[in-house]
Amino acid sequence: MARNSRSLGRPIRAVILALSIHAFFAAMFGISLQFEPKIVQVNLIEPVHAVVIDQAAIEREKMHKADLQRQREEEVRRQAEKKKAERLEVKRQADLKKRQEVERKRKQEEKKKKEAEAKRKAEAKQQEEINRKAEEKKKKEAEAKRKAEA
What is this structure's pTM? Predict the structure, then answer.
């Protein structure tokens, strides 16, 4: 009987193998039916408004703005320096005028002092001359008196 079970074992194995392969393919077929592609409706695509960014143009614009700002600041600085120079010039002119006025007054005072001194000297000289003449007159009178007495 051993022989019988051995010869019977081969066809059973073959049947089990055939059934398992058929079951495998049936499962694969069933799975493939479940994975049918679903029809997907395509949404309308909104166009993208792409803007090209020109970095070089942006940099040029920044440089241009910086140059304009620098020019404005330079103009403001130049105007401030000009105003300062004008104020200094006005101040210098005022100081010069003051000094000239002071010098003129000083010279005027000096001239007055010289004139007063000259006048005083002239009066002193005149007084001295009067005194001298009066003295001479007295001497002449005294001499005439002495001569008359003598």
Answer: 0.40
Q: How many domains is the chain built from?
A: 1
What is the domain extent for residue 126? Answer: 80-150
Could you read off the pLDDT of 14-72 as tens digits, one per residue? 899 999 999 999 998 888 776 666 777 777 777 777 777 888 889 999 999 999 999 99
Residues shown for the chain: 150
* 39 token code pair: 């029809």
Is 62 domain-assigned?
Answer: no
Distance between CA atoms of residues 95 and 57, nearest Å: 56
CA distances from 126 to 113, 131, 136 (A): 19, 8, 15
In a domain, 48, yes or no: no
> Pick from 109, 135, 142: which is nearest to 117 by CA?
109
